[in-house]
Amino acid sequence: LPRYLRGHAGVIEATHGWHVLPDAAAHGVERGEPLYCVGFRAGDLWDDAGSPGDMVFADLWESYLEPA
Hints:
The protein is mostly beta strands. Helix content is 12%, strand content 40%.
């Protein structure tokens, strides 16, 4: 999870289905996990955002997410 997104609330915009989790595969474990496109408001991420209503989207694995 990118550091600038940690601890911020986002909205799941799309589901990309199940894929092999690269973090586990790097250790020889072929484990599937859902992948989501999550949107975050720029103003929620950076105090000096030039356009605070703009959105930043990131594809994130389910294990990276916490319930809001």
